[in-house]
Amino acid sequence: MSVAKYRRAVTLIALGLSMVGCGERAAVKAPAKAPIKPAWVDAERLARADEEPHNWFTTDRASGEDHYSPLTQIDQTNVGTLGFAWQFDTQTTRGLEASPIVIDGVMYTSGNWGRVYAVDAKTGAELWRYDPQVPGEWGRRPCCDVVNRGVAAWKGKIYVGSLDGYLIALDAATGKELWRADTLTDRTRYQTITGAPQIAGDKVIIGNGGAELGVRGYITAVD
Fold it and tell me: If DSSP codes are grouped into helix, strand and coil, which group holds residue 184?
């Protein structure tokens, strides 16, 4: 092979390698933005709750606990035109007292005994439900029915207190129980949980009921 032909071949090979390299670089895409995990609420997001008025992060909406929604779609000029959208059957005739929370299109709420429901906030379709399997005899212990007043969401988990005194963490995506902590000091007395948990930094806080039946109230903090 002549020197000229050799140089031409080397040039073509180099050009081909260069084009392949360019093609490979062109095929590399920027990583897709990770989707928000279900019920992902943290301190930063909660502090900026007003920037997401469509969400109701806590039983009080946000850390201010004012229960006030900044949404303006419904007002005094059109409230009279509101109509039925959907209903969700909790399959109970007992009391329901929870304030639901709504995060990224999913509504999380609790029913009696400490059951938890996740539903599509737009359609009412059930996504999952959780039953803490409270023994039926615990229905004798509360003063005012087997009610539950709500759940808390934090970093992909849903927290609830069961009537028989357990603080429970659930996977927000599936409703699977992750852990439960016994908060009762004396299981022979009429202690119960009917309230909603609160998040304080890296702790979950829950109060216990039973004062109407001779039990001193107290507060438990769990990691």
Answer: coil
Length in residues, the chain: 223
Q: Which two tokens stand for residue 158?
A: 């849903």
Q: How many angstroms separate the CA atoms of 43 and 59, rounded?
A: 16
Provide the whole-model pTM. Answer: 0.83
Per-residue pLDDT tens over the stretch 1-31: 554 554 454 443 343 434 344 444 444 554 4
End-to-end CA gap in the chain: 77
Q: Kindly give, in sequence order, each residue whose CB lies less than 8 Å from that of residue 85, ignoring residues fewer than 6 positions away.
A: 124
Q: Residues 181, 174: contact at Cβ < 8 Å?
A: no
* C-beta of residue 64 within 8 angstroms of C-beta of residue 91: no
User: What is the distance between the alpha carbons of residues 185 and 219, in angstroms, rounded to a whole number?
Assistant: 11
Pairing mode, if any, of strands 126-130 and 152-154? unpaired
Cα R_g (the chain), whole angstroms:
27
